# Entry
Amino acid sequence: MLQEQELLDCYQALERPLYNVLYRMLWHAQDCQDLVQEAFLKVWQQRKQVDAATLHAYVYTTALNLARNKIRWRLNWVFDSVEPWLESWFSAEQMGRSELAKDSPEYVLQMQQQQQVLRKALASLASVEREVLLLTEYSELTLAETAQVLSIAPGTVASRRARALKQLKAKLEQQTGRAWTDED
# Structure
């Protein structure tokens, strides 16, 4: 049986990385905060069935399932084919690495535009590939941990990750008109 302190330690370790993964799935801060809380609440409610050795994977699996349900709900109840902020992107020069002051309106706008491009590119990936990429890149889970969370083989995680990265680079090149170099 899971002890309260084990869950608290897990919460402290996973709250931020889990939020980051959910944010890149949902792109809505409040929904992500709610789902992180709901995931931990569900785990606590099921504490008699949860083994401390697999706690992290169980929390991630619970949160991902909640996020998938939220996405399904959005698709069924919200008619929003392409969000307007995904439509606007100017040029590769405007996305360039300029030396703007970090608190200037131009810098903030540039960062928002770059985030929009990334959102669109991530959204275009197949959900199984996007999930693997988010877990390995933004949560910094190992391939084995990601495999455990998603209940798939580590080799499948590696191939999906490689395919997702290749497709993501192609989408970003297509959207920005900027070719990737070894420094990227």
